[in-house]
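Please produce the structure of this protein holding cytidine-5'-triphosphate.
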Amino acid sequence: MEERMKNFVIIVAGGSGSRMGTEIPKQFLELHRKPVLMHTIQIFHDFDPESKIILVLPKDQHQFWKELCLKHSFSLSHQVVFGGKTRFHSVQNGLSQIENKGIVFIHDGVRPLVSKETLERCLETAKKSGNAIPVLPVNESLLRQEGNLNISVDRSQYFSVQTPQTFRSEQILDAFKQEFDTSFTDDASVAEKAGFSIQMVEGNRENIKITTPTDLIIAQALLQSNSL
Ligand SMILES: Nc1ccn([C@@H]2O[C@H](COP(=O)(O)OP(=O)(O)OP(=O)(O)O)[C@@H](O)[C@H]2O)c(=O)n1
Ligand SMILES: C[C@](O)(CO)[C@H](O)COP(=O)(O)O
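Below is the modeled complex.
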């Protein structure tokens, strides 16, 4: 009988939230009666209750998170590790907890609206092809700045990138052995620099990254309509 592959989920929430600008870090803000991070963890647990969930949080937020879990009676199993200086270093800390082969989902803690269908597409393609990056076509026109000129570009050649960026564990562990480079904006850029070819799958429009106060209003509305 074929052995079932283990799923690992690294949820990164080690950032500073400077563009949100709230006193409470954005991952703890309440949306639809629960902190953002609890929505995110719940989605992955519901997708596969057997998966190992690793939450990356700045060291000085661990106690606060523990208190929030008690307050909300949040008991889904997860392991908490320290955040790093950049997203790359936070992911690296998460990867250090992967002890055997499987599929690794790397997801922004502040994307609490990823759909089950996106997760299924990511899982299936990563199993088959080594990785899967959820993307969407760009809905607006695009301009590129070149000196004093602003030049229209062909938007059909561009896609906006979401998470969970999903990999076979061997591939992503290998990619993250590299030295940090300032060009790394996500995990796909790390894998690409290590020589792996990147596979795109369709993401979902609701899967926004809560970055600014406006995103919070949109996420609140979407979560409310999801639960109707
Ligand atoms: N050192 C860092 C920086 C970012 N992240 C995580 O990477 C995701 C995407 O980053 P972003 O939305 O930019 O979060 P922040 O860095 O917190 O926000 P900002 O750039 O506005 O400060 C977030 O879940 C964030 O917590 C992380 O784990 N560790
Ligand atoms: C990982 C990411 O969410 C993919 O779109 C994005 O690259 C994070 O960028 P940020 O500037 O760190 O928010």
